Amino acid sequence: MTDPIGYAITQNDEDHGGLFDSALALTSRLNITAALQEFVESARKLTGAQFAALGILGSRGETVAFHYSGMDVPDPSKLPHPPHGNGVFAEIPVDSPLIINDLSNHPAFEGWPSYHPRMKNFLGAPVRIQEQVFGRIYLADKENGFNEDDASNISLLASAAAVAIQNARLYSESEDRAAWIGVSQSITTALLEGTDEEEALELIAKKMREVSKSCTSLIVLPSIGDAWVCEIADGLNADELIGLEFPPDGRAQTVIREGSGVVVDSMTRTRTMRIPELRGYGPALYAPMIVGGTGAGVIILLRSRSQEEFDLADLAMAESVSKQAALALELAAARHAQDVAAQIDERAAISRDLHDLAIQQLFATGMQITAIREGLESKGADEAIVSLLNQAISSVDESVKEIRHIVHRLREPDATVVLVERLRREASLARNSLGFAPSFVISLDGTILPPDVDLQTVANVDNRVGADIADDIVAVTREGLSNAARHAKASSVAVTVAITHESVDIMVEDDGVGLSPSQSRRSGLSNLAARARRHHGSFAISPAPDRGSIMTWSVPLT
């Protein structure tokens, strides 16, 4: 008879029978944690040792996980740290067991920690998977000491454990792959349902953190100017990480430029850490968001120092989902363009209907009234009736002119609307999103314009500013009010637009929770900075003196 890994076993032999049963129990485990604990328990029972432990090694040979049996410690996490692998542990060969039956007199023995039980003898053996040492099994305190049969049995059991670990890994990978596919499907569904860009990115960050068993996930996107900033974060310390700027020579931007993800064994051990806030984390994974061959951002998954490292399978799945995150940004931009196009089409349809139907009907009605008036006049009708008909004809003519004016404005939105009226319209529209009316002040050369400002002053404003800058002033005002509504959670917002011969200065101040530039969405405040640069102006956000934030936008007029 042979065991699952091909070793000859004689069931009449009591030890080999126990080994056979232990090997079967091990290889039937599909949960890797359960398989490792089963290995430790089986090794202790098989050899008759009082204590047994298994140290799992990391990529640098350090102990990254620890399983034990026989020690009176209810929770491994309460141990100060797992064994460092020094002293006697370092003497264990990479391909054979080590027996020390007089532990305290061994030259490599370094003594016992205060929390550790005293032990007399020791058996250690490597656990190898595909010629690499996965971990080491430690056994101690067997009555009358360990012998070569114990060493042989532990080596065989370690081989069975290696098979069990590989099986458990394959099973775990299949489960992880199914979970990643589930995340991909949920993201696809959200995108097809037309979920808002920011909500979609928040969903992606949350789902990727959960499926990757990470403690924190970040989405880094282009922000104001050339900066790349953490715009979305989920998990541990998420609020503290939003707004972090990632330097051009850092790992995040390198991943974006090269379009290829990377895994980091430990952020704690990284020699050059340009973002100190990330130093407290352990393993990390960087997955670029690529759309059309261009890097649109990067997703960073972070695990705690006690968690295992990411592997290439994790990276492959994360890169696949990160492409969907890039697609979310692309779809949001396309959806916005589609909405604008639909609005233009709707305006065109309305203008056609007004021109082809309403104007024609009014014109026909006017002709009928004119014919009736002429008939009554020829018969000597009362002048009062003729006067009323003339008034009706004039009203019809005025209505036709007004509708033609409306049609013109629909075909060329805002082309005939003065800047002051456009700004006041933005303030009025913001009432719905804010839940209250913002304070809105427009001044010309230091004089505040009243609600019933005269036409000459309105014309002076338009002439002073010009059509190009006027469009930017409206866009900046709209975005400032929109950000106050979406992010600031304010109870009051004050907008000031000051126009002089030298410049246009816009200030949006709120009393909310505050909005730093690094927390801005890339499609919002970064666009305002670009508008300012186009006119050789400036843009900034700063905390208000007491509470909230102040957004300032200024461009020269000379």
Overview of the structural elements:
It is a single chain. The chain is elongated and about 140 Å long. Strand 4 (122-129) and strand 5 (132-140) form a beta hairpin. It has helices at residues 14-27, 32-47, 148-192, 197-211, 238-241, 251-258, 312-378, 383-411, 419-434, 455-465, 467-488, 525-534; strands spanning 51-57, 63-69, 98-100, 122-129, 132-140, 216-222, 228-235, 245-246, 262-264, 284-291, 294-302, 439-444, 447-448, 493-499, 503-510, 538-543, 549-556. By secondary structure, it is an alpha+beta fold. Residues 1-14, 74-78 and 516-523 have low confidence and may be disordered. 31% of the residues are buried. 46% of the residues lie in helices and 19% in strands. It has a six-stranded antiparallel β-sheet with strand order 8-7-6-11-10-9. A six-stranded mixed β-sheet has the order 13-12-14-15-17-16. A five-stranded antiparallel β-sheet has the order 2-1-5-4-3, covered by helices on one side. Helix 1 runs parallel beside helix 3 (148-192). The termini are far apart.
